[in-house]
Amino acid sequence: MLQPDRLVVAPEVADALADGRPVVALESTLISHGLPYPQNVEVASASEQAVRRSGAVPATVAMRDGRLLVGLTADEFEALAAAPAGSVRKVSRHSLAEGAAAGGWAATTVSGTMIAAHAVGIRVFSTGGIGGVHRGALDGPSPSFDISADLDELARTPVAVVCAGPKAILDVPRTLEYLETRGVPVLVLGEDEMPFFWARRSGIRAPLSVPDIAAAARVVEAQAALGLDAGVVLANPAPAADALPDAYVREIVAQGVAEAETAGVHGPATTPWLLARIAEITGGASVRANIALIVDNARVGGLLAVELATAR
Ligand code: PSU
Ligand code: MN
């Protein structure tokens, strides 16, 4: 059990939870490791605003000096976002304890954020793209076995995660197979194809398509009511105005992944390295798409949380 002295819940978030009002968790790894400064600060506050406009309370999650923070102040945001590269740890289930023991700031990934969200009773969490099965994780002459902790967290922690699908740098079909094996429903909002993170379409069939947020909420509610203690993925394609063409995404990912291999990047550094390299390759277009999809997922997460709170 999470000890109370390891948790700091912002008063606004605690009040909302106590009243059964809708709350949406937001993560911090995309602030510290996923986007360049100062765009990362802008996206963090734009996401919080988007959650509020949808009628829910935002709760950005991070770790500081061994405690999980659920809801950050403006000063805390700035400290996290402006920290020199490398000074903030990226923590998932396997590295939360190490981050806590080390002290200082740590940013929570999808898995780390889900743990904190569930511990306080938050049912919805919005992010950019989930981690998954990396390309080459399972095949080639030396399989890396690099499969994100996000996937097993989704299998064991009942939080609905709104995202633009698995990041396009990953092996999306195998990520879907893995989620299916581990009992995680994957819904796509308004499309019959999986999104491709920066692109709206991937050519990969959606495991399940839902027409609107009310339909998504019915699946989330049923998942909980049936006692299936797993998460749900709600994939929301990136807003059309900033999304990249899918053929272009295929090209930049192939280039980025090949370069990462040559550079010998592996482990938790892989995703941040690829996101930064692809930002260079695209002259910033991938960052614009990433920002747009994060903020839109925050909006959708807010609406989903409102729907779930109303249903109860
Ligand atoms: N979404 C983004 N940018 C990110 C991430 C998500 O738009 O940087 C982060 C999330 O924290 C996710 C992590 O959990 O990338 C995946 O890292 P890994 O592949 O090492 O598990
Ligand atoms: Mn990994």
Oligomeric category = single chain
The level of helicity is 40-55%
CATH fourth-tier homologous superfamily of the largest domain: Indigoidine synthase domain
Q: What are the bound molecules? A: pseudouridine-5'-monophosphate, manganese (II) ion
CATH topology of the largest domain: Indigoidine synthase fold
**N- to C-terminal distance:** 26 Å
Instruction: Specify the CATH architecture of the largest domain.
Output: 3-Layer(aba) Sandwich
Q: What would you say this structure looks like, in words?
A:
The protein is an alpha/beta fold. 46% of the residues lie in helices and 14% in strands. It is built from 12 helices and 11 strands. Strands 1, 2, 3, 4, 5, 6, 7, 8, 9, 10 and 11 form an 11-stranded mixed beta sheet that branches. Helix 6 (110-120) runs parallel beside helix 7. The protein is globular and about 50 Å long. The two termini are 26 Å apart. Pseudouridine-5'-monophosphate binds at residues 27, 29-30, 33-34, 109-110, 127-129, 131, 148-150, 268, 271, 275, 290, 294.
